[in-house]
Write a structure and sequence with these properties.
- This protein has 217 residues and is of the alpha+beta class.
- It has two domains: 2-104, Alpha-Beta Plaits (2-Layer Sandwich), CATH 3.30.70; 108-205, Alpha-Beta Plaits (2-Layer Sandwich), CATH 3.30.70.
- Helix content is 37%, strand content 32%.
- The protein is built from seven helices and eight strands, in the order βββααβααβααββαβ.
- Helix 5 (120-126) packs antiparallel against helix 6.
- The chain starts with a strand and ends in a 12-residue tail after the last strand.
Length: 217
């Protein structure tokens, strides 16, 4: 017997959980103030045996169904445990960590911004040695500069920012309140994208880039 983990959330007033990956029911294990949501199965192949892409889609549908009304701390797909007592022990061991993070981000969402350079692949193929390193440094500085400009442009509704390198570009994560998403999107629609760059904005998502979890077990 194995279980597929979805997320941890506050246990109060849980919404209707419905069905999850492979049509299996979404259930909960509760400890203290929190609940861990999961689906039971006979083995790992209940989730991996079907097309993985479809299983991942169903997994994220569950997350967003819960996230619509409350803060969640999602697990990566697929995170498996052997049985529900193992999940109960995990929640007990990490109770204070989960409670603190859920409280901190109770009204928060995350917006993801991907900045890409349209000609970066061509430029790196043509460069070599020291020239390649100079080109990479130049690209990195330009991406950092544009990310800083974006943060300044949309500063009023945001609470925090994070950046992370990405293939041919840079990922920018914005932390804001749920009721600020419309203002945030509207402000960035007016941002002038520099030539040669592409910017893609997605969300709102559950907060992941700003979590500070030190889990045990």
């Amino acid at each position: 017997m194995s279980i597929l983990l979805y997320c941890v959330t506050e246990k109060s007033e849980l919404p209707r959980l419905g069905k999850g990956v492979a049509g299996l029911p979404v259930l909960s294990v509760e400890h203290g103030e929190i609940a861990g949501l999961f689906s039971p199965g006979t083995c790992a192949e209940d989730w991996k045996g079907s097309p993985l892409k479809e299983s991942a889609r169903q997994f994220h549908q569950v997350l967003h169904r819960i996230f619509e009304s409350r803060a969640i701390i999602p697990f990566c797909f697929p995170t498996l445990m052997h049985e529900t007592p193992e999940l109960a022990r995990h929640l007990e061991t990490n109770l204070l960590e989960y409670v603190a993070q859920l409280e901190k981000f109770r009204t928060s969402v995350q917006m993801d911004i991907t900045i890409t350079q349209a000609d970066s692949a061509r430029a790196t193929r043509q460069a070599s040695g020291a020239e390649y390193l100079r080109e990479r440094q130049k690209q990195s500085e330009e991406l950092d500069r544009v990310a800083s400009q974006l943060c300044t442009h949309a500063d009023s509704p945001t609470r925090d920012w994070r950046t992370r390198p990405a293939q041919h570009g840079l990922k920018v994560f914005a932390l804001l309140d749920r009721d600020s998403v419309e203002v945030f999107n509207s402000s960035l629609q007016q941002f002038r994208v520099p030539p040669g760059l592409g910017i893609r904005i997605t969300g709102p998502w559950p907060v992941t880039a700003f979590l500070e979890l030190r889990q045990v077990g």
